[in-house]
Amino acid sequence: MNDNPLRLDNVSFSFGSIAVFQNLSLAVARGEFVAVVGPSGCGKTTLLDLFSQFREPVSGVVESVGGVRMVYQHDSLFPWQTVSQNIALGLSHVTDQSERRRRVGEMLSLINLEQFGDAYPHQLSGGMRRRVELARALAGDSDILLLDEPFSALDYLTRLRLRNELSRMLQEFPRTVVLVTHDIEEAAQLADRVLVFSERPARICCEITLDLQRPRELTHPKVVETVHRILAELGLEHKDRRLALA
């Protein structure tokens, strides 16, 4: 069994003349939750594209060992299908129809939407749709979950609730997770390890390990300390100090 199912080894990647990564190396351990933060345009989403094999590096080696599911920033539910049908798409590997229905029911129960199996996406709130997308991603037999700003379009209180939902879901269905986010609190509250990227060409300018169980309180001293450290690395500590303490 590979202990590092996600790995970059001296990877370089460019968009034309714009260098995004130069000789970047990174390994994600099995079952680890890694959050990546950094300036806009530094290559965070490109990192996920490389791990998902949507893009190929200019040089170096990218390894993704196991099935990969991705949850994007924008809503990707099929509007013409019900909640149950959308979740069932993640169970295409389950050929027995009764078992598939059972698994869909299990996921609906996990996300507390048992009464909404026959509803369509337009009948759900934004937070409910996010929960359905996460359930669809976790329903399958994938080992790796890639999250690209999954909660960014939601209001603050809904984001807080969904962080706890995600933590609870991962307790039921463990995965190796890489989360790309602009939300520093989110990174500190969810991740086992936070990587702070620099401007392009991106390098890892800071790596913070949080040896805390999830779910975590935002006011936990280690979470607060991590938020301050990330802000300092990004040169935002004084400007955003009041926000970090809110």
At a glance:
34% of the residues lie in helices and 23% in strands. By secondary structure, the chain is of the alpha/beta class.
Structure description:
With 246 residues, the chain is α/β, with parallel strands linked by helices. Helices cover 34% and strands 23% of the residues. It has eight helices and nine strands. The chain has helices at residues 44-51, 83-88, 97-110, 126-139, 156-172, 184-190, 221-233, 241-245, and strands at 6-15, 18-28, 33-37, 59-64, 68-71, 144-148, 176-180, 193-197, 204-209. The chain is globular. The N and C termini lie far apart (43 Å).
Helix segment tally: 8
How would a textbook summarize the main sheet? 6 strands, mixed
Q: Give the helix proportion (percent range).
A: 25-40%
How much beta, percentage-wise?
A: 15-25%
What is the residue-mean pLDDT, rounded to a whole number? 90
The count of strands amounts to 9
Oligomer: single chain
> What structural class should be given to the helix and strand makeup?
alpha/beta
Strand order of the largest sheet: 5-6-7-3-8-9
H and E order: EEEHEEHHHEHEHEEHH
List segments where confidence is low: pLDDT < 50 over at least 5 consecutive residues: 242-246
Features:
246 residues; alpha/beta
Question: Topology of this structure?
Answer:
Layout: E1 6-15, E2 18-28, E3 33-37, H1 44-51, E4 59-64, E5 68-71, H2 83-88, H3 97-110, H4 126-139, E6 144-148, H5 156-172, E7 176-180, H6 184-190, E8 193-197, E9 204-209, H7 221-233, H8 241-245
Parallel strand pairs: 3-7, 3-8, 5-6, 6-7
Antiparallel strand pairs: 1-2, 1-4, 8-9
